[in-house]
Design a protein that fits this description.
The protein is α/β, with parallel strands linked by helices. The protein has two domains: 30 residues; 232 residues, Alpha/Beta hydrolase fold, catalytic domain (Rossmann fold), CATH 3.40.50.1820. 39% of the residues lie in helices and 16% in strands. It contains eight helices and eight strands; from the N terminus they run αβαβαβαβαββααββα. Strands 2-1-3-4-7-8 form a six-stranded parallel β-sheet, with helices on both faces. Strands 5-6 form a two-stranded antiparallel sheet. Helix 5 crosses helix 6. The longest helix is centred in the first third of the chain and has 27 residues. It is globular and about 55 Å long.
């Protein structure tokens, strides 16, 4: 009887150990690709789908790509805040569909937008920033006179008077636009949402952030201290200076980006 009792205790202990091991493995198990969605934001004067939309879809991920206020069609006709509300609607829709994690990414102005979004909302789980651009605090789009003009029009109750300005894109590309003073200020105020040092500092929470900088971009010359070092610390944060130029960064970086997502976000 004693031997039988001892044997029974051994069996029970073994089953309990197996159950605990199974529970531990389940808690550590990565989520499935089908449970992760990616929102991608296009660059300045671009249109959906954003760069890498198709590549991530072919890799098995749900991808959405909203049109932002800096697209060639919307052309600054809505404020930066309104653009971010579009992103918020996409993220909330994905959550309602049952996706457990949402990654927000973007190229150029889209990367600027992803960083701005995470400084305003706290409902994304990681950021993918490809060749971040549009820097009204330091680059050619810094225009203090136009910023003061916009502020003056707003303070004098002339919100319907349009501001005409030249917008600079990567390389030597320029376009002339007209926008309301509120819209202009939302995108070009050096202390506003487009300021990456400010939005990096104001992130709502510490989440993994992967950054690929364009090799010859003006902002790359400022180094990681410009905005990356201001981000909340996270062990998965990574800053890479690409061998590629601005518009080629997403394609060149895709293999590394998807490996990073699978290593640091799918868990």
């Amino acid at each position: 009887m004693k031997i039988a009792a001892a044997a029974m205790l051994f069996v029970c202990a073994s089953l309990n150990a197996q159950a605990q091991s199974s529970n531990t493995e389940a808690s550590a198990r990565t989520i499935q690709k089908s449970e992760l969605a990616i929102v991608l934001l296009h660059g300045k004067w671009g249109m959906p789908p954003a760069p890498l939309d198709q590549q991530f879809k072919e890799a098995g991920y749900k991808v959405v790509s909203p049109e932002m206020g800096w697209s060639r069609e919307l052309a600054y006709s809505m404020t930066y805040e309104a653009s971010l509300q579009r992103v918020s609607a996409e993220v909330e829709s994905l959550r309602q569909q049952g996706f457990k994690k949402v990654v927000l990414g973007g190229q150029s102005f889209g990367a600027n937008g992803a960083l701005a979004y995470a400084s305003t909302y706290s409902n994304v789980d990681a950021l993918l920033l490809f060749a971040p651009g549009h820097n009204p605090d330091i680059d050619r789009n810094r225009n203090p006179a136009k910023v003061e003009e916009a502020k003056a029009l707003i303070s004098s109750a002339q919100p319907d008077k349009l501001i005409t300005f030249t917008d600079f894109n990567d390389g030597s590309r320029t376009k002339d636009f007209s926008a309301s003073p509120q819209a202009y200020l939302s995108y070009f105020d050096p202390d506003g949402l487009a300021s990456m040092p400010k939005t990096a500092t104001n992130q709502k929470k510490a989440i993994p952030v992967l950054v690929f900088m364009g090799r010859s971009d003006w902002v790359t010359r400022q180094g990681a201290k410009y905005f990356f070092d201001r981000l909340p610390k996270h062990p998965a944060n990574k800053y890479v200076v690409s061998d590629s130029e601005h518009r080629q960064v997403p394609q060149a970086s895709f293999p590394s980006a998807i490996q990073w997502v699978e290593s640091h976000v799918l868990k």
